[in-house]
Write a structure and sequence with these properties.
It is built from 13 helices and 6 strands. With 390 residues, the protein is an alpha/beta fold. Strands 5-4-3-2-1-6 form a 6-stranded mixed β-sheet. Among the domains are: 119 residues, no CATH class; 125 residues, no CATH class. It is elongated and about 105 Å long. Helix 1 crosses helix 3, helix 2 crosses helix 4 and helix 5 packs across helix 6.
Length: 390
C-alpha cells in the first residue's frame, strides 16, 4: 500500500487466511504463508500443509468465488520446480491454466492430483459431491499464484525501511526509518493478535444482533487500510520532528485566571485593551490544544503543544533581547518585535501545525504566566497590584 502503483487498499491480518487483501476493484486476494528454516525440504504438492492450503482456497471459492481474483501460497523458502512432475505446483497450475475444459485433454498427472484434493475436500464437506469438488480444485489451481520472494528471517525490517525510504523521501535519517518500520510492524502484530483497545466493547454490545456486532468488531480490528498506514507514518514523522521543552507543560495544570501574566504585561506598559486581547489569545491556544486532543489523542496533542510552546519561547527570547531597555517599560516594542518574529516563522516553513498568530501569542501569554517571559525588567511579584504599586 505504500507504493503509488499499489492496487491494494486494505490488508486483513489472520482473518480467514494468513493474509487477506482487498484491491481497488473490490476483489480479494487470499494468501497462505509457509515459513521454513534454511535447509528445509522444498515445498511440494504432496505435502500436507500445501494440500490443506488448497482445500482452504476451495472453501473460499465455493462460498465467495466471484469475490476472489487470486489465491497465493507464499514462502520465505523455495518451491520444488520440475517440468512434468506431479510434485511441482508450478507444473500443476500451468497445466490447469492450459486446460479449457473442451478442446484439449486434461493432463493425466493434473487429473490425478485434482481427484486427490477433491477427496480431501469432500472428507471435510460431505454435502459436496466429488465432481463439484473437482471443479473447485481446478478453478483454484487456475487462480493460483506461487511466491517464493518473501524476506528471509531477519530481513523484514530492512525491506520495510527500504520501501519507506523509496516512497517517503522525508524520512531521511536511519533512526526515522527504523522507527517508522517498527510502527508498521507493530500495527500488523496488533491486528494479527486481535488486540482489543477497549475491553468494555467485548461486554457492552448494545445491539439487536450481538453476534453480527462482534463479527464487525473483529473484522475492523483485523483490517489495516491505506489510511491507517499513512496515519502511522505521519504520526511517526511528527513524533520525530517535534521539539521537546526542558520544562514540559500540561495545559490542565495551568491557572485559568492569568493574574500573574496580567501583572507582568501591565508592568511592561501594555494597555488594558492588549490585556483583554491576551485573555482571548490564551483561550485560543487552549482551544486549539483540545482540538488536537480530540483528533489525535492526548499524548500526540501534548507533543504538539510543547513543540509550539518551545518555538514561541524562542521567539519571545529574540523579541526580548531586541527590545529591552534598562529602567524603562518596553512591552509595546517587545510585542511588535514578537509579532514580526512569529510572522517570519509562519512563512518560512516552520512546523506550527496550522497555528494562527493569535494561537502563538496565546502561548506567549501562557509562558508569561509561568514566569518564563518578561515584558519589563524582572521584579518581585509579591504584593504587587495591577497598577504596579506596592
Amino acid at each position: 500500500m505504500l507504493r503509488p502503483s499499489a492496487v491494494t487498499i486494505a490488508v486483513f491480518c489472520e482473518h480467514h487466511d494468513d493474509i487477506l487483501t482487498k484491491n481497488q476493484s473490490g476483489k480479494y486476494h487470499a494468501i497462505q504463508v509457509k515459513t521454513k528454516q534454511p535447509g528445509s525440504e522444498l515445498l511440494k504438492s504432496s505435502q500436507t500443509e500445501i494440500r490443506d492450503s488448497l482445500v482452504k482456497f476451495m472453501e473460499h471459492e465455493r462460498q465467495y468465488g466471484e469475490l476472489f481474483d487470486r489465491y497465493t501460497i507464499a514462502t520465505n523458502h523455495q518451491f520444488f520446480r520440475d517440468s512434468d512432475n506431479k510434485s511441482s505446483l508450478f507444473f500443476l497450475k500451468e497445466q490447469a491454466r492450459a486446460f479449457d475444459g473442451s478442446s484439449n485433454q486434461i493432463h493425466a498427472k493434473l487429473e490425478a492430483f485434482i481427484k486427490t484434493i477433491a477427496k480431501r475436500f469432500v472428507a471435510k464437506h460431505d454435502e459436496v459431491d466429488e465432481k463439484a469438488a473437482q471443479a473447485l480444485a481446478m478453478t483454484v489451481l487456475q487462480k493460483l499464484h506461487l511466491d517464493d520472494g518473501l524476506p528471509k528471517f531477519g530481513d523484514e525490517q530492512r525491506l520495510l525501511r527500504e520501501v519507506i525510504a523509496e516512497v517517503r523521501p522525508t524520512f531521511d535519517r536511519v533512526d526515522e526509518l527504523a522507527n517508522a518500520a517498527r510502527s508498521l510492524s507493530t500495527m500488523t502484530y496488533e491486528a494479527s493478535s486481535l488486540a482489543e483497545p477497549d475491553a468494555l466493547a467485548l461486554f457492552l454490545l448494545l445491539t439487536e444482533d450481538p453476534q453480527e456486532e462482534e463479527e464487525i468488531r473483529v473484522i475492523d480490528a483485523k483490517r489495516i487500510s491505506s489510511e491507517d498506514v499513512e496515519s502511522a507514518l505521519s504520526s511517526q514523522k511528527i513524533a520525530e520532528a517535534t521539539l521537546a521543552a526542558a520544562d514540559p507543560v500540561c495545559p490542565t495544570d495551568l491557572p485559568s485566571d492569568l493574574s500573574t501574566a496580567e501583572l507582568k504585561l501591565a508592568a511592561g506598559g501594555l494597555s488594558r485593551t492588549t490585556l483583554e486581547s491576551a485573555k482571548d489569545w490564551h483561550a485560543s491556544a487552549e482551544h486549539l490544544q483540545r482540538v488536537w486532543a480530540s483528533k489525535y489523542g492526548e499524548e500526540r496533542a501534548l507533543e504538539r503543544y510543547n513543540h509550539v510552546a518551545t518555538i514561541v519561547q524562542s521567539a519571545c527570547s529574540e523579541a526580548h533581547e531586541a527590545s529591552q531597555q534598562p529602567d524603562a517599560a518596553f512591552g509595546a516594542q517587545m510585542l511588535d518585535k514578537l509579532r514580526e518574529v512569529i510572522r517570519n516563522r509562519m512563512t518560512t516553513g516552520d512546523e506550527l501545525f496550522g497555528s494562527m498568530e493569535e494561537h502563538l501569542l496565546g502561548h506567549a501569554v501562557i509562558r508569561t504566566d509561568q514566569c518564563k517571559v518578561w515584558w519589563s525588567e524582572q521584579f518581585d511579584l509579591e504584593g504587587t497590584r495591577l497598577d504596579g504599586s506596592s
